[in-house]
Design brief:
single chain; mainly beta; outer membrane lipoprotein receptor (LolB), chain A; twelve-stranded mixed sheet; 4 helices
Length: about 230
């Protein structure tokens, strides 16, 4: 559990090649993106690797985004709600029966991103289809503390969310991420969109549930650190 909770702390962020593409599915502004999650760099503890998330859903509507990651067979959940126009990020932690939420503005989000290895991004002309959507390529070079590496990121302009990446290391990517990676402390999560479902989303999905108790950012980080001792 100690290794798992360490990975949870470091990966907490609200979440391929080719030149040709299939017919586009068309532009949408409301729905759910389902991402497959893989781990390009092997996790040291094989048992903990099995407890890591293999999928993530992102709901979106009217420039609102709601994502959630589940760890430890559902025992721990970390969720993020943000409105990309007002630039506030609501970070939620559910552990057993305890539910807490903290709120971050632009500066606090920048502090969080500062803990991630530096990213150099180059937009390229290549395109391809992912989950039925026309995607554009970017080359990302990551200054990983273990071994620097470069990979291909893909994004689409056909999902209508304003500034969708404002609270990520990919602020300058002009579209919704369809394939990308996040790394902290030598753990890499690789996200690939496998389905984009156009469906109505209730407005309530973008409000923090009443059961969550508001705490400070420092208190939230302490709660995450305390998981190490479980």
């Amino acid at each position: 559990m100690k290794y798992l909770t360490r990975v949870i702390i470091i990966l907490s962020l609200p979440l391929i090649l080719g030149n040709s593409c299939k017919e586009s599915a068309g532009s949408i502004d409301e729905g759910i993106i389902t991402y497959d999650i893989s781990y390009p760099r092997p996790i040291e503890d094989r048992w903990m690797e099995k407890l890591m998330p293999s999928e993530m859903e992102m709901q979106f509507k009217n420039n609102n985004i709601n994502t959630e990651l589940t760890f430890g067979l559902g025992m721990i959940k970390i969720g993020y709600i943000t409105n990309t126009e007002d630039k506030h990020l609501h970070e939620m932690l559910k552990f057993m029966r305890n539910r807490n939420v903290s709120h971050r503005g632009i500066q606090q989000v920048d502090d969080l991103i500062a803990d991630i290895p530096a990213h150099e991004i180059k937009l390229l002309p290549d395109t391809k289809s992912i989950a039925g959507y026309l995607c554009h390529k970017a080359e990302v070079s990551v200054e990983s503390p273990e071994t620097p590496y470069t990979y291909d990121l893909w994004y689409t302009k056909e999902i209508e969310i304003k500034d969708p990446n404002w609270c990520t290391p990919f602020k300058n990517i002009p579209g919704v991420l369809m394939e990308y990676r996040i790394e902290r402390f030598n753990v890499i999560m690789h996200f690939t969109a496998v389905e984009v479902k156009q469906t109505e989303i209730a407005d309530s999905e973008f409000f923090v549930p009443k059961k969550y108790k508001e705490i400070s950012i420092d208190a939230m980080e302490k709660n995450l650190r305390d998981l190490k001792d479980i």
